[in-house]
Amino acid sequence: MLDGAFLSHVLLWVIGAMTVCAAVTSFIALFSLGRSGYRKD
């Protein structure tokens, strides 16, 4: 089961998941930084 094709597929999915998480986190961080200038807390 743990052949080269399976391991490369798992590695591709891990890199893809990390990329999606980083993009979502970056978008949320930039959105919150942009909104913080308008708040008057």
Automatic annotation (TrEMBL):
It comes from the Bacteria. The chain crosses the membrane at residues 6-33. Keywords: Membrane, Transmembrane, Transmembrane helix. The keyword Membrane applies. This is Uncharacterized protein. It comes from Microbacterium saperdae. The lineage of its organism: Bacteria, Bacillati, Actinomycetota, Actinomycetes, Micrococcales.
